[in-house]
Amino acid sequence: MHELWICQNIFEIVNQQAVKQSCVRVKRVYLEIGQLTMIEKSALTLCFNVVSKGTVAENAVLEIIEIPGSARCDSCQQTVSVSQYYDYCRYCQNFSLTIMQGQELRIKSMEVE
Ligand SMILES: [Zn+2]
Question: Which site from 11, 51, 60, 81 is most exposed, i.e. has the minimal number of CB atoms within 10 Å?
Answer without folding.
Answer: 81
